[in-house]
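This section describes the prediction task in plain terms. A model, or a person checking by hand, is given the sequence of a single protein chain and must write out its three-dimensional structure as a string of tokens. No templates, partner chains or ligands are provided. The sample shown here is typical of the held-out split.
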Amino acid sequence: MKRIFLTVLDSLGAGEAPDADKFGDNGANTLLALSKSKRLVIPNLTAAGIGNIEGLEFLGAVKNPKFAHGRMLELSAGKDTTTGHFEIAGVVSETPLPTFPNGFDREIIDILSERTGRGILCNKPYSGTKVINDYGDEHIKTGSLIVYTSADSVFQIAAHEDIIPLSELYEICREARKILTGKWGVGRVIARPFIGESGNYTRSANRRDFSVEAPSDTMLDILKSNGKDVIAIGKISDIYAGRGITKAHLTHSNSEGMQAMLDMLSYDFCGLCFTNLVDFDMLYGHRRDIDGYAAALSEFDAFLPRFTEKMRDDDLLIVTADHGCDPSFSKSTDHTREYVPLLIYSKDISAKNLGTRRGFADIAKTVLDLFGIENKINAVSMKSDIL
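The expected answer:
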């Protein structure tokens, strides 16, 4: 292979994992929730074989699927973006990233306030859409930062774009990232800018993530060190703290991300094009919007043949997810511990059932194997199964 396109449909879970009870996620099933929406229209994913994946038979199995297909079980001790993407890239997180269910230590807050010269509001777990309406007016009056978290390992800073310019907010997040190390080393510091007026504040599309670095070399580092291109679309560059990336395209929506993927088909590169489509998670999963999520997946479904028809003979496409976020789950609005789907396509694909893969890192092993790069990633390559 000369070019591999790896696309993460952020949070598209494929049913509760065997250890879902440890995360309070018994019964979670993102795709099952979507299947009940009239807005789910996915004939291309069905033809690809998504309904042939174990546990997803309710989507409709086909006799001759076009893609190799299976599901993956996460081995990392977490269910968030960081651990999911690290494992996809070959690094299993055996220790959970720290969370702060009672808010962040006073010392963290005091240091950030001192370094930024701004007060701190909230400092507790909160819904991202609710926190700006509950604290937005006080933020406008005082210029204080709205700091909050969730069940995930995140330190989120919300600020109105008219009060704190984006450049300043991003710099504040970089400062927070420097503080949040060691026992405070959260997976991501997230800039959450918002706009609007009192009673009608809304998040803008200018979110940025500032991630903790992977503890060891990822697939991206290995590819780059072996002279391969590593092109990041969406928040991929942010997730990996810019490490192992040769070219980054920041996007603000799924549609921008898919267009960037199409554009890359005309670009002569040798290596990996890695895309994250975040709207599934950010706009629909966490907000428990089943119909919105279903419509977004239908949009990707319509995009899929447009992409595969333009693929070259030496191109390969991998479609998967990083965790679940069941929009019908009533226990919380957080991510859900689920299997994730796996679909692989090339012009000469062997459309086998790849079964249940023990670990997302099988993707990293396969990508490096397809490029003939030796590595020490502890996983199982699928090269001989798919070609």
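For orientation: DSSP finds 13 helices and 14 strands in the chain.
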